[in-house]
Amino acid sequence: MQPTDLDSCAARVVDPERVAAVRSRMPSEADLVDTADIFSLLGDPRRLSLLLALVEGEMCVCDLAVVSGLSESATSHALRLLRAHRVVSVRRTGRMAYYRLDDAHVRMLLDLAVAHTEHTDAIHPERDLTES
Description:
Layout: H1 16-25, H2 29-42, H3 45-54, E1 59-60, H4 61-68, H5 72-84, E2 88-93, E3 96-101, H6 104-118, H7 125-131
Antiparallel strand pairs: 1-3, 2-3
């Protein structure tokens, strides 16, 4: 008798109707890649701090740099990345650039992520090892 690998299935498809239904609702490969890109952008604490600052409303690059602790150059670079993925938008007045969250979806995503973090205790084995 061989032990069963917990990460594999003995049967290839247990519930074909459910598999078909889930696959029919699955986003396209391109949409999956774009969504993963958004999450990778949100995965950087400094970029995330920029976005959370913008939850309060529109801000100029220099103020965002102070809030995030980044240089103005690094802040501008991060904002260009976020703008390219339609996470933020910009309004220019003369030489000043004012950024805001692009739409309500971004605000909802940030609000949900923060609420999730505030209401759960994440398990971070890699942090626990370094804090000992």
